[in-house]
Design a protein that fits this description.
Shape: elongated
Helix content: 40-55%
Largest sheet: 7 strands, mixed
Radius of gyration: 36 Å
Strand content: 15-25%
Number of helices: 32
Number of domains: 6
CATH class of the largest domain: Alpha Beta
Strand order of the largest sheet: 13-23-24-25-21-26-27
Number of strands: 27
Length: 926
Amino acid sequence: MALTPMMQQYLEVKERCEDCILFFRLGDFYEMFFKDAETASRELELVLTGRDCGLEERAPMCGIPYHAASNYISRLVQKGYKIAICEQLEDPSVAKGIVKRDIIKIITPGTFTDSSFLNEGENNYIMSLFSNEVRGICGMSFSDISTGEFNCTLCNNDISVVLDEISKFNPKEILIQQNLDDKLVRAILEKFNVSFSKYADEYFCKDGLKNIGNQFKTLDTKEVDECIMYSCNGLLNYIKDTQKITLSNIDVINIYDIVDYLTIDANSRRNLELTETLRDKTKKGSLFGVLDKTSTAMGTRELRRWIDQPLIKKSQIDERLDSVKELTENLSLKEDLKIALKEIYDIERLAGKISSKSINAKEMISLKSSINNIPKVKEILSKFKSTLFKKMYSNLDELGDIYKLISEAINENPSLSVKEGDIIKDGFNASVDELRKAKTHGKEWIARLESSEREDTGIKSLKVGFNKVFGYFIEIRKTNLELVPKDRYIRKQTLANTERYITEELKEVEEKLLGAEGKLIDLEYGIFVEIREQIEKEIGRMKNSAKIISSIDCLCSLATVALENNYCRPNINEKGNINIVGGRHPVVEKVITSGNFIENDVLLDGDNNRFLLITGPNMAGKSTYMRQTALIVILAQMGSFVPAKSADISICDKIFTRIGASDDLASGKSTFMVEMWEVSNILKNATNKSLILLDEVGRGTSTYDGLSIAWSVIEYICKAPHLKSKTLFATHYHELTKLEGKIQGLKNYSVSVKEDGKDIIFLRKIVEGGADQSYGIQVAKLAGLPEAVLKRADEILKNLEENNNKDVVEECTRCNKEITTNLIKETSLIKETSDKSSNYLKVDEAALDLRKESNESREDSNEVISNEVISNEVISSEVTQLSFSDIEKENLLNDIKDIDVLKLNPMEGFNKLYEIIEKVKSIMQR
């Protein structure tokens, strides 16, 4: 059997978009066939039917109305699918043979521009990545085609660096080479919800200089690195292939260096909850949620960029701070600005719609309304004196010519569709006026005809009607048929209760009237296209004004937040000192339900206060204290006031955090492995200008191993020549407090706690000096553990404290020597283990042999080992602490930890407690 002509056409089109779901236009529906139909019916919950196509079996088929396609396309794109739109290119009523059809657009996650479904306060980025393995570098390009933003950079071909840069933009789609390193691809997929499009190197390289030169007229291509050029060229090719046009709003390229901004690695962005929360990925509860008081969609997106890319040049930071200060001191002007800004629509995306030829007449009126408010903004700017505001005033284009053109040409309340007419104003075009007059007079003639025919026939219910199928007609009820003049009336259509007629006179007027209406619609559309093309030439000016307006909006938002929350202006220095007095966490202070947020000071410098070792119980506020320090630095470097009484902030080049427990079981990495990988990344990439936050390093393994690693990491940060970073280090290993005075720059701090009998009260105040206990049992009591468990835990603790009276520091010193040597010699040690998930820590074999030799000696003869290996004092003392190296004790503690008391009934609780007691007795008897 042969395929039908329509199905042959479908398969020819489908062959050119194999990786897409093809929306094939048939009349008023988009139809999908074969695998596309099966996928669409499953994902969109559509009924799957079939269609005869000339094959033995019917082709699976499903369809959607063309006017409802946007909603279905959005749902598929959000799931990561690509959609190819195949339209009818000619009128079926006049086509000879099968209607011509072709793909007019391909919609992908990174090129989706429908403003009805995009988050107006968030960019929709697509990214291109080109790697040169020989040079060890890669070029990256990021674009939001809905706004015309286009950014490029060059970085080392290092997984962690690439991931950090991607985290700034969080693209929805990435173009990569077919032979790109699988390790990098897997790492990207582990961190980001993104779809990939793979192409051969030729797709990125062919005609790169020519294509980039044509797109960016003012760019000197001789100064562009080859890797940047190839990544940029690949992205431009992809945009052109999917949009089927060259987008004129992508006219400026921003080539930046990653060191031009504060580097915040991907883990730190997540841990600090800069733009979304860890728990539910929402804006509320993040730093962005606190700072966003913007009035425009453009300002919201710009504020997000400021948070993602804090500045690193003091002059630029001070310019923003000066402007925020001036706004806080001129409240009336600030409020006037906010009022004017609220009347401005999203000029960036309206310009993008002009570029993509998708703007309608109503959106043109929105653009006009927005431009109408720019002179008001500029007038208010003229009253400010800060340098940045003066620059904005000089560079802000009022776009008066665009406003005038739209005002003169487009109706204030035009049709929604540009192909329905009624969009061009009277008086703008003589031909439009003439046709519109003819159309109006024709309708008047129809009204007169209806009146005269009623008089001539005596039929009072006679009506002259119209529909698109039959045109104009005279409608008469069947009860009046005897009055119909047979000589003049020609029967056109018979209905249940009426007959429809035409006359020669009516046919003549119909031809004139319908001809005028059709010509008018075509003429209005043509004029609208001319206006759109004329405005398209000025897109660069529109984008420049939009950028200035968005920056003004951000500054107003920061000033509003500063006033509402009592922030202070930070002093920015380059001396390496961070001195915060009365600092607060900007997010936590907004959500606490009772009492006031407890303020804390921070002093970090390059001398005696370079490394702060913080001890204290869980839930006491250590992590909040560390996070607020990082957030205050980020706020200061993005040009914002900060939550403190006073703040002197040194410019940091990078911020790293290792906070919170997490695992990646899907990729075979335990909590401890993830922790070690993150620490390794910090030790490799931090500098003496960086800020490091480390929380509970080493807690995921046995006690002595964890303590040794924590100790070694501290030494390495404090002593390695390329590090000596400003560091906040929270720990429960109280033995580490003895390092104060032994390591230059290390200072002990703790969270103060008030004891009330056997209970504790968290004062959440950071004070000098180390804590001598963790109050673990008291915290467990606050968590609601059964009294019997708490009582027994207290007994066990006292027993352990009485017996374990030897100083474990000597033991840790022995274990630490080899680990420290390895960390200093090879900082990439931990990273290498990420590919060998079974090997948790690579320790020198000599250290392992010493541990094994020590254990064998204790078991066999309890003989004294040479002082060169381990001290007599440590060997002779029988350590009875419940060590994590003892597998039975580890299992017992894990069992207790995993008990969910709220899910146990009383009997189950007693049984579980009895089981724990029996296990403890069994262990103690051995």
